[in-house]
Specification:
The structure is a single chain. The protein is of the alpha/beta class and 289 residues long. It has one domain: Acetylglutamate kinase-like (Carbamate kinase). Helix content is 41%, strand content 24%. An 8-stranded mixed sheet has the order 5-8-2-1-11-15-16-14, with helices on both faces. Strands 3-4 form a two-stranded antiparallel sheet. It has a two-stranded antiparallel sheet with strand order 6-7. A hairpin with a 5-residue loop joins β9 and β10. It binds adenosine-5'-diphosphate (ADP) and N-acetyl-L-glutamyl 5-phosphate. Pfam families: AA_kinase.
Length: 289
Amino acid sequence: MSEEEKAAVLIEALPYIQRFAGKIFVIKYGGSAMGERFTDVILDIIWLKQVGIHPVVVHGGGKEITAMLERLGHRAQFVEGLRVTDEAVMEVVEMVLSGAVNPRLVAAFNQHDGGAVGLSGVDGMLLEVAKKHHPAGDIGYVGEVVHVNTALIEGLLDRHLIPVIAPVGVDREGRRYNVNADEAAGAVAGALGAEKLFLITDVPGIVRRGPGGSEVVSKITAEEIRQLVESGEIYGGMIPKVKACLTALEAGAKHVHIINGEDPHALLLEVFTDRGIGTMVLPAGEGPE
Ligand SMILES: Nc1ncnc2c1ncn2[C@@H]1O[C@H](COP(=O)(O)OP(=O)(O)O)[C@@H](O)[C@H]1O
Ligand SMILES: CC(=O)N[C@@H](CCC(=O)OP(=O)(O)O)C(=O)O
């Protein structure tokens, strides 16, 4: 980028920087999206912090959990995008999320002076959960977030730190549960009343069949989501994602976006330009344009 182009980008971004300074953005970084652009995503999040936004990161790691389970001779099993988690699987989930993915992310942030602090939902009862009762049957140690310790997150933000949260929850009896990372991020964004929730994944947004083939939906309502889940056009890992978007909006988050981690600077383009990228999920009452 030439100096003139950089200046033009900055001038375009200025009103957005002013609008979002001091606001909380919850960013869910999916395991599937931690690919070639990993460092770019980390640097973009640090950039948000440098311009006065408060990023809170919730990460996934589903693919890595599956790979580890396979190495140990287990077969991964999912029900509507949620991992069936018995005691042995839970041990691996916690090992991978809290023991490998979380410190790897924290180290990557701090290598660039990101001021990141790693936590799992167990720390300070950050994510208090109850066992999830799924209509399809017992899926084991899968938790549903019932309370978020927002004071702990806000305390870190006050100290200009980036909380990096592994989606492992805990109940009042001290049992740990596997929480889908999208759900965890949705709950955190809702509880904090975040300005924005970003779900960074490995697809460019919600894709649906259009007259000219598959296309990314740029804006979608809760009703359209319900229809696409029913018709099977939204399936698997996208199901917890869209549910998390709706929960976050209902609980108080203002805007929710699904973007592709492999798109160069998708996060910055979405925040600082008027070129919408990915899919924006609209709050109830707001229809598509
Ligand atoms: N309508 C849809 N549009 C886009 N992706 C979809 C859709 N329905 C299901 N998916 C699937 O959801 C996946 C994203 O979820 P997941 O693999 O859990 O990602 P992450 O690790 O980022 O949470 C996509 O790779 C795709 O296979
Ligand atoms: C209950 C449940 O499904 N938990 C997820 C937690 C990790 C996750 O959600 O990771 P991604 O965002 O990378 O998919 C799992 O075990 O895979």
